[in-house]
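Notes, Module 5: Reading structure tokens.

Key idea: the token line is not a picture. It is a compressed description, and you learn to read it the same way you learned to read a sequence, by spotting repeated patterns. We will look at two proteins. The first is printed below with its tokens.
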Amino acid sequence: MSKFGLSQPVQRVEDTRFVTGQGQYIEDMSRAGELRAVFLRSPMGHADITSIDTTEAAALPGVHLVLTGADLEAPLENDMDAVQLQNRDGSMSARPRRPLLAVGRVRHVGEPVVCVVADTLAIAKDAAELVVVEYDERPSVVDTAAATDPGQPVLHDEAPANLVYDWGIGDEGATESALSAAARTVELELINNRVVANAMETRGGLAEWDGTRLTMHYNGQGVWGMKDELARRLKLDPENVRATTPDVGGGFGMKAFNYPEHFCIAHAARLLGRPVKWIGERTESFASDVMGRDHVTRMVAGFDTANRITAMKVECISNLGAYLSPYGVLIASELASRVLTGVYDLQTAWFNVKGVFTNTVPVDAYRGAGRPEAQYAIERLMDKSARVLGVDPLELRRINFIKPDQ
């Protein structure tokens, strides 16, 4: 095949390797002297950490390293990356710190608190159970629509009332005027529930350090971001950092980002001079992998007497979880806006999104990244409008489709 073309078949070459058990996933990789890492995670949705005692865990035979958030403050850049968004008033969205391991407070169940590295997975698990973490529990907020209500517990000082951003696109004034002048209006409120990512292969990584060069094998969705961030975060020359991805058992966006665990095992490998592997367990993934959706959306559409849509106003509350994930602020806002009006001749619209923090796992790109949510919203609105207007749903769509000559 010289190049891709419409309807041109592409010969698959990978199948034989997989169906004969010759795949190479993270768990299939092993190195001489390999150590295993385990992460102790918060059982609390929101709490102050009053003390962490790792003495007994560190003394267990076979344990090589026990890391807390305090141990990472000096040697690493101890703050996960995240994109910001410009608010309606020109200011930038909130950008609170997200340490690799919790420092001072935990903000969601599953947040990593301690990393234990030992000779075997069993020893590392035993040692993690010997770590004593004292928590002073705080009230939590998990309701997307109520996150900014007065009296709700606040997660970050940088985000008063848990408001991360207030973003808008379109013409608000023209939309309000068009809705006021419409012959009929239709209102709709939608809850697009949180979706848990569940790849066949859980997240993992294998870090190697040869005294000069760091190599990270991980089941992600690209290597350049990992390479660059490892170099910066561990303060290494980029020429001395290598990232690889073997076979990957699913991701769909959830594995497109870098996570705290990768940097912790890279740091551990450098400290110990031995390979360090971590493989997340299924229940661990449910409490630490980024999730999708979690929106509450209110919509109003105006129609003229010929059932043509004249305006649409959409107000969305987007739950970002306890921290910003790398691209979380873009999902319900900029990405959704690009397809929000669908295939309809809609000239006047206003789209406002408010991002909020709650004591839940962070949200980011997963299975379409904002576009499915937007399509769901506009099509549900058209279905309800057809019922309210007494028009066949297909006919209402035909009336409002963008015409070929447009």
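Here is the second protein, with the sequence above and the tokens below, as before.
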Amino acid sequence: MKRNSFPALFLVAGMALFLTGIWYGHRSANPSAPQLQRRILYYVDPMNPAHTSQEPGLAPCGMKMEPVYASTQLDAGSSARPGLIALGTVRISSEKQHIIGIQVAQVEKAPATYTMRLFGRVAPDDRRVYRLNAGVDGIVREVSAVSTGTQIKKDQWLATFSAPDARATLQGFAAAVDVLNRQQKSGGDAPGPLGVLNDNVRLAAERLQGLGLSSLQIDEIRTTREVPAALRIHAPVNGFVLAQDVTPGLKFEKGNEWYRIADLSRVWVLADAHAQDTEHYPPGAMAQVSLAGQKKLLPARVSESLPQIDPVTGTLKVRFEVDNPDSLLRPEMLVDVILSVTLPPALMVSADALLETGLTATVFVARDHGVFEPRVVETGRRLAGQVEILRGLEPGEQIVTAGNFLIDSESRMKLAAPAAPESGHKDPICGMKVDEQAARAAHRFSAYQDRTYFFCNVVCRDSFEQNPARFTQGTTLAQAPDHADRRAPPRLPH
């Protein structure tokens, strides 16, 4: 090498170091400068979202066309990155908002009290149901007009029967009462004999009760000391006849049920509830029961018993205990149960703010200057026209509660508008025109950097997917210069 070439080499190296220092200093002075620029998808008319253009300029209304940038796909609970506009975002002027009736509300997280309404069915209290059974074989002689569904009074006569096998027991009771009365009249005051006689009368009375005699007729025999030819059945309480199985001349056996009577002064209401709502019905919680067509509300209390599962519907049967002094509630009546529920702090929005498709739920978030952004949200419980938002919204955000269907129409028009100007696609490998529908049907397409490319054959598609950055620099392989380090894939006949 010649001696005079060394100064030139030193000069070139010095210039390179100088330029490197300038570049590094510029980067250090701007540490917050963005490294990635937003890619503009298209331009839109701010007054007419259906009017779009691939180039900037003025809209027909005279306003400047606004750019729409690429955005990531929004999943449930995510939001757009700062500075990016979500796909489907629309801008609506204040005048147009007033015309279509758009209303917004602020999302807040706070505890709330809701009034829940459950459907219930009246049932008798098992502890207040009386079964009148025969204690001896016999024959029904006479039956009153009482039937199933009749409301009866205590000691009301129901039927008469005869039982030959009960005669000895009746005579024994009458004799025991007679002996006791004679002892008392004779002036005997020895505690021992009187105590034994009283016990005999009590035991004989219990035997008569076991035969099916009422307390009213037992007291009558105690007074007259006469054995009746026919025995009577009386109602033990004020109540409601649930079942009856007596007719004149009916022969019955010991243990047969004559009547089933329910005391309706206190009843149960069995209400259907969802399994996830059992926390709202703790034992002792108070509620109100209303009857259709009546304004009167009856206080109710959740029973101490655990809710029962309905094997048919899978719902829970929550039991409420209700005082029923006027017998307004009858078995099998349908009633409403009104219950106040206090929920823990949660994001609750109006159900009218949601646009649901069955798989997803979307709300429109109101931004500044009339911008409305679609947001996919995840929902939770639903109570009294309110829906809990689990993911997708933050406290303080404004959402549309009225007019969202019209905003959704604008958003869908805007999403469909970008595809209108372009009628076809070019294969980025060979440059040939490709029909989108045919390419999709044959799976000859590939996505790269928020854009979908279509190919005339699978060879071009496979070549593209091996190195997509090579073919997305604004030129196709057919137009690119033939460098030594770029080998074109084989062209297939079309």
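Summary for the second protein:
- Residues 6-29 form the longest helix (24 residues).
- Residues 424 and 435 are 6 Å apart (CA to CA).
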